[in-house]
Structures are given as C-alpha cells and as structure tokens.
UniProtKB/TrEMBL annotation:
Organism of this sequence: Nothocercus nigrocapillus
Gene: Rnf114
Pathway annotation from the record: Protein modification; protein ubiquitination
One Gene Ontology molecular-function label: ubiquitin protein ligase activity
UniProt key word Zinc: no
Transmembrane segments: none
The protein's name in its UniProt record: RING-type E3 ubiquitin transferase
Catalytic activity: S-ubiquitinyl-[E2 ubiquitin-conjugating enzyme]-L-cysteine + [acceptor protein]-L-lysine = [E2 ubiquitin-conjugating enzyme]-L-cysteine + N(6)-ubiquitinyl-[acceptor protein]-L-lysine
Keyword Cell membrane carried by entry: no
Length: 183
C-alpha cells in the first residue's frame, strides 16, 4: 500500500485492514517482511536495471521507460476513452436502500446500514451491485446486511483497474500477453 492509503486504513478512530477491512489492533512492525523487502532483488520492467524491492517505488516514479511500459499496458486494455459521461453509471456514491439518504461511498454505506439498519429485515436492492454491469437492479437481497458484509467489505477498484465495459476474453488475452512479456 502507498502511504496515503495505509494512513486511511490506520485512522485513529477505526484502524482497518486494507484488504478485508477487519479491525486492526495495536501491533508491531513486520521486521521480517521489511528485511525481506530490503534483501530481495528485482528488475525494472522499463529499463531492466536491477535493484532491491525497497528502492523500486522511488525508481519507478523517476524512470521514464517504466512509465512508458505502464502506459503501453493501459493502452492495450483500454478500448476507447469515454466521451459521453452522461451515460456512465455512478459507481462511487450510493443511496441507502432503507431510508434513501444519499451520497454514501461504499464504506460509508456499509457503516450507515450497520449502524442504523442492522435489525431491518426488509428485502432491498443493493445499490452497489445494481450499478455494476452484471448487477440486476430488480434483485432484492433476502439478507441485505449479510450481503453487505460478505460482498462489500472492500471495493473492486481497490484491487483492479476496472474497465467495466471491456470484454472478459480480451482482458484475459491482454493479461496473458503482458505476463509473457514480463518474464
């Protein structure tokens, strides 16, 4: 994780794991992991320079060949830029399906529902799922609170650069081509 994302997860009021969003207790530094990062060598995919993993982030920020390498990958999986944003679904803010309060991000919606609607058994449509291309805007979850806690503990965008309109087979082909090129 980069420092801003890690700091967001470690906010004093509720430190959370960046992956599963479980609460974190006070802990100690992972010295064994730090040592491994200091001692593991890697190669820059742009300029092929060898370095330790601990130096890779600062090198990547300054290496124009690495930045070109990344942009080639982005161009390879991007079909075309979206010019008409009016037809682009909002996947960033959501209304509460119980009380219709608006403009929650995914984490905020989960917190809001846990705090105010945890005992509400009414079957509702998940606004997060409904905004996805595969989501059914008419499907009512039998247990919305369990659904939220299982499906929306983290955002898809945390782990992948989402092109929701890209064809899955095309994306898989691009991943395979890139992985062969990286060897």
């Amino acid at each position: 994780f980069c420092t801003p994302c890690l700091q967001e997860c470690l906010k004093p009021k509720k430190p959370l794991c960046g992956v599963c969003r479980s609460s974190l207790g006070p802990g100690s530094r992972a010295l064994d992991l730090e040592k491994q990062i200091e001692m593991t060598e890697t190669t820059c995919n742009g300029c092929n320079k060898k370095m330790y993993l601990s130096k890779m982030r600062s090198h990547a920020a300054a290496c124009s060949k690495y930045q070109n390498y990344i942009m080639e990958g982005v161009k390879a999986v991007t079909k075309e830029p979206l010019h008409n944003t009016r037809n682009f679904p909002n996947r960033f803010t959501f209304p509460c399906p119980y009380c219709s309060e608006k403009n929650f991000d995914q984490e905020g919606l989960v917190e809001h529902c846990k705090t105010l609607h945890s005992m509400d058994a009414k079957q509702v449509v998940c606004p997060i799922c409904a905004s996805m291309p595969w989501g059914d805007p008419n499907y009512r979850s039998a247990n919305f609170m369990e659904h939220l806690q299982r499906r929306h503990r983290f955002s898809y965008d945390t782990f992948v650069v989402c092109d929701y309109d890209a064809d899955e087979d095309d994306m898989m082909a691009q991943v395979l081509i890139r992985s062969l090129r990286d060897k």
